[in-house]
Amino acid sequence: MNKISIPLSVPRSKAEEFRKNYLALTNKHDRLFLIAGDQKVEHLNADFFGPGIDPEDAEPEHLFKIAQAAPGSALAVPLGLISQYGRDYPEVNYIVKINGKTNLGDNEAKDSHRLFWTVEDVIKLKKQSGLKIAAIGYTVYLGGKYESQMLSEVAQAIWSAHQNGLLAVIWMYPRGKGVKEEDVHTIAGGAGVASSLDADFVKIKYPTDAKNADKAATSFQEAVKAAGRTKVVCVGGNRRPVKDIISELSKQIKISGTSGIAMGRNLHQRSLKDATRLAAAISAVLWNNASAAAAIKIYNSKEKTITKKSKKSSRFLGIF
Fold this sequence. Notes:
Distance between the termini: 47 Å
CATH architecture: Alpha-Beta Barrel
Low-confidence stretches: 304-320
Number of helices: 14
Largest sheet: 8 strands, parallel, barrel
Radius of gyration: 19 Å
CATH superfamily: Aldolase class I
Number of domains: 1
């Protein structure tokens, strides 16, 4: 992988801790595979229960099982879920989401800049639990009613995270009246703001509905360049066919120059077995530079994935 560029906001005494966390988050390949579970707050239960959603997704632990079955990935969830389930999943890399809002009521009227937990709380949990907590996550609604408060809050949170050797991942979404949320030029502006805030990764939207996929990937280079040394990961969006997910990811990496993907509904709404197969295909593109065709073959393979729990069961049954 390329040499890690450690921000000057990271003290020398914490540089090695930052490097360790960076390598864990990127699986030593300079790219991030973010499994998004913050929708437990953002979208309530609409994303986890209902028609077309695997029954396994009804319980929060499904997110942790998927992350454990996808080595090298990073699970982004609120601190409370890590507190509840982390003991059983110590191998998982964690990004602690420290702000958010639900989708009930008038979104524009909601003041979601306030932190659920401080960076100091995150550090305490990391020390108390010994878990692989490597970063904080924060959502910014650029152009929204509370933009100035959010920018101020997240700037201080990033500074505090870096002072403690943690990374910062920013969800950057243009919102508000008259704002063109899907416009690449606007999205690129948001990526530039994330860089100005000293973020290590920025999670932004990608033009998934573009008629010309290659042209869309090329135009998205603007956002990657605007982000500078802040690495860009794209949101997964609504549930789509595996072939489309892999093809688009391949173009993002090879044409746009992005540095990873954030996958939520497209992953956790599947059964653990199916999600594990998709995670393996995504990992091949991110970390082995596999072609889309090769990654789809991996997904379609019939190899069995054995979870940690099933391994324990096998050993238990084997004594009789």
